[in-house]
Amino acid sequence: MGTRYIWFIAPAVIVTVAIIIFPWMFTIYMSLHDWQVTGARTFIGLDNYVSAFADRRFIAAIWRTGLYAVFSVTLPVILGTAAATVFHHEFPLRGLLRGIFIMPMMATPVAVALVWAMMFHPQLGVLNYLLKSVGLPPSLWVYSPNTVLPALAMVETWQWTPLVMLIVLGGLATLPVEPYESARIDGAQPWQTFVYITLPLVMPVILVAVVLRTIDALKAFDLIFTITQGGPGTASETLNIYLYLKAFSFYQIGQASAIVVIFFVMIVALSLGALALRERTRWT
Fold first, then answer.
1. How far, in Å, CA of 16 to CA of 25, rounded?
2. Which domains does the chain have, with CATH numbers?
3. pTM for the whole thing?
4. d(Cα 238, Cα 242) in Å, to the nearest integer?
5. In 21-125, which residue ranges form alpha helices assigned H by DSSP?
6. d(CA 177, CA 199)
7. Cβ neighbours of residue 179 closer than 8 Å, sequence gap 6 or more
C-alpha cells in the first residue's frame, strides 16, 4: 500500500484507537492496581481478579445475571418467532397490527421501567388488580426475592419481543419457495411444514436474534436499577448492578475494572459459542 493511501484510513484508525482500544487498555491497566478515587494507586497484579472470584457476592451476581439472561432471552425468542410466523402471512390490517406490535421497543428503557414500576406496586398496581379480577391471588412482583427476576424479565420480554420478531420476519422473507412447493405436493400438513422446513431454514436467523438478545440481557442495567436498584436485598443484583456499586458506591475502581474485564470475556465467549452453533445449524 502506498504511503498516500494511509491518510484515507488514518481517521478510522484514530477513532478506533481513541474510543475502543485505549479505553480497554486503560481498563485492564486499572484492574491490575489498587486504585483509589483520590488518584493513589498501587500495582497488585492479578489480586483484583483473585479477590473477585473469592467474593460470594460476585459469584451470586454471576448466577443472577445468567438466570436473568435465560428468562430474558428464551421468552422473547419463542414469542418473537411465533409473532413473526403470524405476521409473515397476509391478513387484513397486517401492517397496522405490526406497527402497533413494535411500539414497545421504541420507548426508552428508563421510561418503560418507571411505567412498569407503578404497575408492579402491590397495592396500587394494575397487575394485581387484573389478577384479583380473574380470581387469582395478588403477587409481590419485584418486592419479593422469589419473583423479582421473573418480573423484571417479563418487562424485557414485553419490550424486546418485537425486535426478535423483526429479525425473524426478515429471515422468513428470504426463504426459498421450492421446499414449500414440494411439501404441498407431498401433502404435508402446515405444522409439518413449519417443523421440518421453516424452522430449520430460519434457525440461523433465530440464533442471530439469540446472540443479540443475550448480549443485551447480560448488560441490562437501566431497567433493573430504575425498578429495584438490585433489591430487595441483593435478589436482583446482577453483575452490572454489582459493578456499579463497586465503582461508584464503594469506590473500589481497581476491583470494578477487573469485573469489567471478566464480564467482557464472558460475553465474548458466549457470543462465539452461539455463532459457532449458528454455523452448525445451516440448513443444506
1. 13
2. 50-280 (1.10.3720.10)
3. 0.88
4. 6
5. 22-31, 47-53, 56-87, 94-101, 109-119
6. 14
7. 197, 201
